[in-house]
């Protein structure tokens, strides 16, 4: 759904189009809509408010300079920004150059994250699911996602076989998807 | 286990950036050729976005917003002030003398160039004015505090109304709707471009806001299609590739 009129304001695609034409107001509206997601994921990964603020600035400046990086025909802006922010935060945490070309990052998710109430509902659902996940599976998923550890590193840290770690990460992600399909 | 299955097994690790070296390269080669794995990778990134939401809570401080908007405003100013800067290279004296000769020759052409510069400046100023006007139009259309008013003959109750403005050569479409009833649960409206020949083309999804207003601005469209009419149907939220009857609104070009 690329052109949906969001609750409480113009659709993301309309704001991105306005931003392409240089509207600072459109960027401000997108920032107000998505900065809490970008900031909170950056803060969780980096554990430092200053570094999270820098990353927030970097992600939105990048969107401002190159609105074409986000292809609205291939997904929603909210999930895309969340994934870009997480990946960039991991790069910063691990002190490495950006691993993936940002234009290659296509995020397929039909759910709209534009409304704050929607985000809160989704957040509660994800937290609920993580809470009921077996603890070893949850920690493997969180180590991969929030610490950027490879399956080899997780395996070395936990002393569990590589294949087990792979399966835990995979089933953990798929469980999230399944919870939102029903 | 086939190569495809082995690789598909590694997709979650790749999505998380946890795959390195040869395994990573092998996977990248495979997804270039395998649409099913590409779709799965995109879906896995969707799952990752959900995980990002679990962190929601802390809000960025107000200064972060100010800092961003100041940086953007600075870039804006710099872009409009930017002029080409001369680049001087260290040259030996002999080359400098030759350069002087060139400068003398060039100065003869100077007045002609100056005339061209004046013409270019005028063209740039015109383009700036056009751009400014386009910005104003788009910002009015998309402003969150815009007042949407539909005028109808007096004593007529407000009717659902859509207005599509389409420029074929630019494949540019702006659609504004008003007084639209809310879409049914799990459904959204889909706008269709009906070409003079061939099947209807999807031209964007929309859901009206609380006041029944909606906009679709420049949805992805194939280039240069001649439109006979525009139509609206009710479709699943993800959109459809062909319209589901009935057509709820229809308008033909004049």
Brief digest:
Helix content of chain A is 68%, strand content 0%.
Indicate the proportion of strand residues of chain B: 15-25%
SSE string of chain B: HHHHHEEEEEEE
Enumerate how many helices of chain B there are, as a single number. Answer: 5
Query: Would you count the extended β strands of chain A for me?
Result: 0
Please identify the top-level CATH class of the largest domain in chain A: Mainly Alpha
Sum up the structure in keywords.
heterodimer; A: 182 residues; mainly alpha; Rna Polymerase Sigma Factor, Chain: A; Arc Repressor Mutant, subunit A; 0% strand; globular; disordered N terminus; B: 254 residues; alpha+beta; Immunoglobulin-like; 3 domains; four-stranded antiparallel β-sheet; three-stranded antiparallel β-sheet; 5 helices; 7 strands; 45% helix
Task: Give a description of the structure.
- The complex is a heterodimer of chains A (182) and B (254).
- Chain A is mostly helical.
- Chain A has two domains: 1-111, Orthogonal Bundle (Rna Polymerase Sigma Factor, Chain: A), CATH 1.10.1740; 133-182, Arc Repressor Mutant, subunit A (Orthogonal Bundle), CATH 1.10.10.10.
- Chain A contains eight helices and no strands.
- Residues 1-7 of chain A have low confidence and may be disordered.
- With 254 residues, chain B is α+β, with helices and mostly antiparallel strands.
- Chain B folds into three domains: 3-52, no CATH class; 95-146; 161-252, Sandwich (Immunoglobulin-like).
- In chain B, a hairpin with a 4-residue loop joins strand 1 and strand 2.
- In chain B, helix 1 crosses helix 2 (21-33), helix 1 (3-15) packs parallel to helix 3 (35-53) and helix 2 crosses helix 3.
- The interface between A and B is large, with 87 and 71 residues.
């Amino acid at each position: 759904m690329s052109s949906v009129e969001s609750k409480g304001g113009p659709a993301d695609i309309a704001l991105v189009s306005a931003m392409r034409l240089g509207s600072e107001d459109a960027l401000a509206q997108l920032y107000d809509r998505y900065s809490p997601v970008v900031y909170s994921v950056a803060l969780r990964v980096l554990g430092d408010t200053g570094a999270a603020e820098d990353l927030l600035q970097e992600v939105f400046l990048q969107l401002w300079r190159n609105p074409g990086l986000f292809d609205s025909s291939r997904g929603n802006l909210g999930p895309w920004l969340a994934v870009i922010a997480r990946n960039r935060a991991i790069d910063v945490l691990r002190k490495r150059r950006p691993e993936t070309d940002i234009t290659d990052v296509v995020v397929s998710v039909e759910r709209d994250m534009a409304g704050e109430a929607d985000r809160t509902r989704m957040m509660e659902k994800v937290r609920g699911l993580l809470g009921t996940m077996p603890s070893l599976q949850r920690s493997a998923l969180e180590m991969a996602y929030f610490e950027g550890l490879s399956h080899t590193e997780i395996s070395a840290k936990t002393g569990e076989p590589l294949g087990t770690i792979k399966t835990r990460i995979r089933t953990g992600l798929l469980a999230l998807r399944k919870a939102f399909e029903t | 286990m086939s190569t495809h299955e082995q690789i598909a097994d590694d997709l979650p690790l790749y999505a998380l950036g946890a795959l390195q070296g040869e395994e990573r390269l092998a996977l990248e080669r495979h997804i270039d050729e395998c649409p099913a794995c590409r779709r799965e990778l995109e879906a896995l990134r969707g799952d990752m976005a959900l995980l990002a939401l679990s962190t929601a809570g802390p809000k960025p401080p107000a200064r972060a917003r100010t800092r961003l908007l100041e940086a953007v405003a600075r870039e804006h100013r710099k872009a409009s002030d930017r002029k080409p800067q001369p680049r001087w290279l260290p040259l030996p004296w002999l080359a400098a003398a030759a350069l002087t000769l060139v400068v003398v020759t060039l100065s003869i052409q100077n007045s002609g160039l100056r005339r061209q510069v004046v013409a270019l400046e005028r063209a740039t100023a015109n383009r700036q004015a056009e751009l400014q006007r386009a910005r104003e139009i788009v910002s009015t259309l998309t402003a969150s505090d815009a007042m949407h008013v539909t005028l109808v003959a007096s004593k007529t109750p407000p009717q659902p109304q859509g207005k599509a403005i389409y420029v074929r050569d630019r494949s540019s479409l702006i659609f504004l709707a008003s007084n639209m009833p809310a879409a049914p649960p799990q459904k959204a409206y889909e706008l269709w471009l009906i070409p003079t020949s061939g099947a209807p083309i999807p031209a964007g999804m929309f859901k009206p806001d609380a006041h029944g207003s909606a906009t679709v601005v420049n949805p992805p469209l194939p280039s240069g299609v001649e439109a006979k009419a525009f139509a609206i149907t009710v479709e699943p939220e993800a959109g459809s590739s062909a319209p589901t009857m009935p057509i709820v609104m229809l308008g033909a070009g004049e």
